[in-house]
Amino acid sequence: MSEQAADVTRLDYDGDDEYEHHGGFPKYEPVTPGPDWARFVDGMRTLQDLAVSVDAPDDVLAAAADQVEKLAELLGPHVAPEGRSPAGRTIELPGRGSLLLPPWNIEKFGPDGVRSTGMFRRYHLGGNGAAHGGTLPLLFDDLMGMIVHAYGRPISRTAYLHVDYRAITPLNTTLAIEGKVDRVDGRKTYITARMTHGETLLAECEALMLVLLPGQP
Ligand SMILES: CCCCCCCC/C=C\CCCCCCCC(=O)SCCNC(=O)CCNC(=O)[C@H](O)C(C)(C)COP(=O)(O)OP(=O)(O)OC[C@H]1O[C@@H](n2cnc3c(N)ncnc32)[C@H](O)[C@@H]1OP(=O)(O)O
């Protein structure tokens, strides 16, 4: 985290009552689970990479499938409602501990913008060694949500997300993504962001985020 970073765990940013007007969303609280959670998520990420890359003989696949079924049986009784699992709420873990999100870490979080660094892995492969084009909007969309939050605006929905792909996005090397609020107009927050690899611009993104009306899903 940079010195400039605001406290990412402060969901009541600025103590603004307006935050309470966050549509029909549950209120998400950050959590710090025990070390086994980090180990579990990390192991699952390795499994994701393997699941999209192995070419194993039938007996190996049969043994793996048996273990996967056993694991699902073990975890099945512990499913929690939205906002209660540590997934997505463990700020200190890459991708906030959510397997949906690529394993990126927040480096700066404040009203002047959010920056995160990380990499795409084999799991995110599109073609010819490059990241799948759909993984970039996923990362940008999540970044937009964090930027709105860090700016002190209530939880907003993405109305549009425009991505310009400028160069092939490589796997297994550290990349950066950064964005900030450009302007605010009533419920509308306009945000721009970019993804870079060193000095190379990989993608640019522009989004409109709309503050939800009370009760809006
Ligand atoms: C727990 C600890 C963790 C803490 C961590 C730190 C904090 C992190 C916090 C969070 C991080 C994660 C966050 C993730 C964030 C993800 C966000 C999403 O992906 S949301 C899913 C994708 N989006 C949808 O599914 C929307 C679907 N669409 C809708 O629901 C509606 O269309 C909605 C709400 C967007 C707008 O509907 P209306 O009825 O409320 O509003 P209308 O009247 O249509 O528009 C209002 C104004 O906006 C303009 N507008 C609307 N859509 C537009 C568009 N596509 N293009 C241009 N203008 C548009 C309109 O022209 C209008 O403008 P005029 O007021 O007249 O000037």
From TrEMBL:
Transit peptide keyword on record: yes
Residue ranges constituting the Thioesterase domain according to the UniProt record: 128-201
InterPro entries: HotDog_dom_sf, THEM4/THEM5_acyl-CoA_thioest, Thioestr_dom
GO cellular component: cytoplasm; membrane
Subcellular localization(s) per the UniProt record: Cell projection, Ruffle membrane; Cytoplasm; Membrane
Top-rank taxon: Bacteria
Membrane topology (UniProt): Peripheral membrane protein
Basic and acidic residues composition bias: residue spans: 9-23
Name used for this protein in its record: Acyl-coenzyme A thioesterase THEM4
SUPFAM superfamilies, alphabetized: Thioesterase/thiol ester dehydrase-isomerase
Broad class of enzyme this protein falls into: hydrolase
Protein family per UniProt: Belongs to the THEM4/THEM5 thioesterase family.
Span list, region Disordered: 1-28
Lineage: Bacteria, Bacillati, Actinomycetota, Actinomycetes, Mycobacteriales
Catalytic reaction equation(s): decanoyl-CoA + H2O = decanoate + CoA + H(+); dodecanoyl-CoA + H2O = dodecanoate + CoA + H(+); octanoyl-CoA + H2O = octanoate + CoA + H(+); tetradecanoyl-CoA + H2O = tetradecanoate + CoA + H(+)
GO biological process: fatty acid metabolic process
GO molecular function: hydrolase activity
Pfam families tied to this protein: 4HBT
Keyword Ribosomal protein listed: no
EC number: 3.1.2.2
Key words of the record: Apoptosis, Cell membrane, Cell projection, Cytoplasm, Fatty acid metabolism, Hydrolase, Lipid metabolism, Membrane, Transit peptide
